[in-house]
Amino acid sequence: MSCCAAGTESAAELEALKSEGPSAEEMWLSSRPLGDGLRQVDLIVPGVHCGACIALLEKELPRTQGVDHARVNLSTRRVSVVFREADGLGNAGGQESKRPEAVLTALGEKFKALGYPAHLPGGADEAADPALRELLKALAVAGFASMNVMLLSVSVWSGAEAATRDLFHWISALIAAPALIYSGRVFFVSAWSALRHGHANMDVPISLGVGLAYAISLHETITHGEHAYFDASVTLLFFLLAGRTLDHMMREKARSAVRNLVRLSPRGAMVIREDGAREYLALDEIEPGMRLAIAPGDRIPVDGRIVSGRSDMDFAVVNGESAPQLVEAGSLTPAGTLNLTGALVLEATRSARNSFLAEMVSMMEAAESGRAGYRRIADRASSIYAPAVHILALGTFIGWMMVSGDWRMAMLTAVAVLIITCPCALGLAVPVVQVIAAGRLFENGIMVKDGSAMERLAQTDHVVFDKTGTLTRGKPRLINSAAVAPDHLAIAARIARASRHPLSQALADFDTGDAGPEFDITETPGDGVEAISPEGDIYRLGRAAFALDNRDEGIERCADASQVILSKNGSFLDIFLFSDQLRRGAAQAVARLSGLGIDAEILSGDREGPVRALAGELGVSTYVAGVRPRGKVDRVKVLASEGHKPLMVGDGLNDAPALSAAHVSMAPASAADVGRMAADFVFLHDSLEAVPMAIEVSRKASSLIRQNFALAIGYNVIAVPIAVMGYATPLIAALAMSSSSVIVVLNSLRLRRKTRVEQFAAPERVPQPAPNPGLGAQA
C-alpha cells in the first residue's frame, strides 16, 4: 500500500494541472491578513503525494523572495503560504503598493517549476471525487488482469510443456501490457513528473519495479525462458492500487467532514435595509451591523444577536445535541445553526470569514497539518526513501553480478528489493492514525487544531482547571439583589453592560434601559471595570483589591459566594454576591482523570470561600484562589519545571496567556475568542467529560502510532535481508509489501472501536460562542 495516497489525479485534474493556475490578483484577493505585515493564501495542490512531496514544498517555497514560510496538509492537499504584504516588490502608489505582485507571480511560477501546479480552493474538482473514480477503475482493470494472469501462471507452474508454456507467457504478456499502461499511469505520471523536475518521490521506485518486472518477463518470453513474472507485475500493481484507494477513501472521509461543515453556511441572506426594504446579499457581502430576516427552516449565515422574534433553534453544530432550544431577543446565534419554528430578525455581529463556523472549519483543516514528533520522523524517513532504495537496489544488482555473473538473477533480485522495501507501512503509520483520531474526536464534539496537539495531550499528567465558565456554567445569578441599594444596582448594571464577563452579564440583566449618565469606561482583564462619570467621579466594579483604596475596609462577606465590589472614588458603595452552577460532567471528568493517573487542580481569580467549596464538591485537593492572569502562567511554568506536562483548561481572556504557556490546552466553545484561538482543542459539548475523553483517544492514538512504527520497522528488518539474499521473487515481494501496509491500516482502525460510549449531556442554556472577558472576582 502506498503512502503517497492523497494526490491521485483524475483526467480532469491532470488537465487542470496543465492550466496556468491562479493569477497574482486572484491569490491576493483570496488571501487574508495575519498581522505584522504578513498575509496567508491557501492553495490546492493535487500533486502532493507523500512525505517527500511535503519536504520539497516546505523547503523550496520559502526560497521565493517575499515568502515567509509554507505548510502542507497531506489529507486536504492544501498548501498554506505566508508572504509579506510589502517588501518593495509591489506596485507603486496608495493601497496598491501593498500588493506584492512580483512575490505572488514568482510563487505561482515556483509551484510549476517544482512540478506541483496549484489552484485556489473551490470548484467542481473539490465538490466531487473524480480521483476515487479513477482509482476504482484502475483497480478493477488491474484486478481483472492479475486474476487471469495468475490462472495462466498456475498452468505454467504445474509443468506445462515448452510450447504451451511459451503460449501462456505470450497471452500473459498481452493481458498485462494494457493493464500496466492503464492502471500503472497512476504511478508512472507522478514518477515522470518528479524526475522531469529534478527530484524523486515514492512513485519512482514503484514504477521502476513494476516496469522492470514486466520487461524481464517479456525478455524471458522472447528467449523461451522457463520463468516469467507477469503475475508479479500486475499483482503488485493491484495491491498498490488497493492500498492507495483505501488510503484515499480514508483521507477523503476526513476532508468530507470539512465540506459538510462548509455546506452548513447558506449562500446568502435577506438583508433588511434602514428604510425597511429587503435585499438578498451573498454571504461575503454581509457585514457586522446588518439586520437579516431569518425565516423558519433557514440556517444562520453569520454570527449574530436576535433583535426580535422567538423561535426554537437547532444548535447541533455547536453542542452536538439535537434537542431544540428557545431563542429570543438578545440571544446569540452562531453561524450554521438552524432556525426551526419562528421568524427572526438577526443583527450580524461578525462577517462570514470570522464566524464561529469558519473558525471550526479552519481548525478541522489544520487538525492533520501539525508536525508532531512522530510525523516528523515519518516524513524524514519518507524523504530519504527514494535515493536509499535506489542505492540499495543498485548495490544488490552489482553484488549479484559479481557473485553469480547472471544478469537475469541480479536484475530479478534488484527488482524484488525495489518492491519489498517500499516504506508504505512507515508512511501510513502516523497519518492514518491521526485522521482516525481527529474523526473520532470530531464525532464527540471535540475540535483539534493540529496533529501535534494530540501527541502532546497524550503526554499530559496534570490538569489545571479555570473555575468560572469552565468548571462552572459561567451563568451566575445575583443572590443578594434585595439587600442592595436600588441606585447602586442601577449604576453597577449600567457599568456592567460594557463587559461580557459572566458576572457582568448577571448584573447587566438588571439594567432598566432608562437614560442615565454616560460613563467613560475602561476594562482591566482579571480585575474589573473602571467608569468615570461626567462629573469626574471614578466608579470601580470588580475585585476588592481593584475597587477599594483600602481593601481592608469593613465589608460583610459571604464565604461561599463570588463577590463584586462597587466603589466610588476608592470608597466602598456596595457588594454584589453571586452563585454559579457546576458544569455538567465536571465531577465525572475529575473522577475519570484520577482513574487515568492524572492529578487535577483549580486556579481561580475568585475568593477563597467559593473556590474551596467547589474543590470540595469535586474532590480536588489542590486549589489556589485569588490568582491573577500572570499567576496562572507562573503556575503552569512551575509545573513544567517540575517535569510535569500540564493541560490547561480555561475559557476567558485572562486564561489565554496560560493556555498558550501550557504543554497543551483546551477551551469550551463558549470561551472568549482569544481563549479559543489560544487553545489546542475546543470542545463543543456542554459536558466537561470531553477533557478525559480527548486524553483517552490521544493516548490510544499515540500507542497505535508506536505499534505501527514497530510493525513497519520490524517488517523491513526481516524483509530487506531476505530480498537482498535472493530468497524473494518479485511476486513474493509484492505480497509481503502489501501485507505490511494492510497490517498497519488494520491496526490503526482499532482506534474506531469504542470500549466506552461517551454521552454528553445537553446544555440547558443557549450557547454563547463568543463571550468576552472582563469583570473582577474572576475565576
In a nutshell, what does this entry contain?
The chain is an alpha+beta fold. The chain is built from 29 helices and 26 strands.
Describe the structure.
By secondary structure, the chain is α+β, with helices and mostly antiparallel strands. It has five domains: 20-118, Alpha-Beta Plaits (2-Layer Sandwich); 130-259 and 369-433 and 703-752, no CATH class; 268-354, Calcium-transporting ATPase, cytoplasmic transduction domain A, CATH 2.70.150.10; 445-474 and 582-696, 3-Layer(aba) Sandwich (Rossmann fold); 477-579, Calcium-transporting ATPase, cytoplasmic domain N. It is 48% helix and 15% strand. It has a seven-stranded mixed sheet, sandwiched between helices. A six-stranded antiparallel sheet has the order 6-5-7-13-8-11, with no helix packed on it. Helix 10 (230-262) packs antiparallel against helix 12 (356-366) and helix 20 crosses helix 21. The longest helix has 35 residues, at 690-724. It is elongated and about 110 Å long. The model is unreliable at 1-19, 88-98, 123-128, 367-372 and 755-779 (pLDDT under 50).
Biggest sheet character:
7 strands, mixed
- Tally of discrete structural domains: 5
In DSSP terms (H or I, runs of 4 or more residues), the helix count works out at: 29
The beta-strand count equals 26
From the alpha carbons, calculate the radius of gyration and give it in angstroms: 32 Å
Quick one: overall form?
elongated
Note the beta-strand portion. Answer: 15-25%
> In percent, how helical is the residue content?
40-55%
Mean pLDDT: 77
Could you tell me how far the N terminus lies from the C terminus, measured between alpha carbons in angstroms? 52 Å
Low-confidence stretches: 1-19, 88-98, 123-128, 367-372, 755-779
**What structural category characterises the helix and strand content?**
alpha+beta
List the strand order in the largest sheet: 14-26-25-24-15-22-23
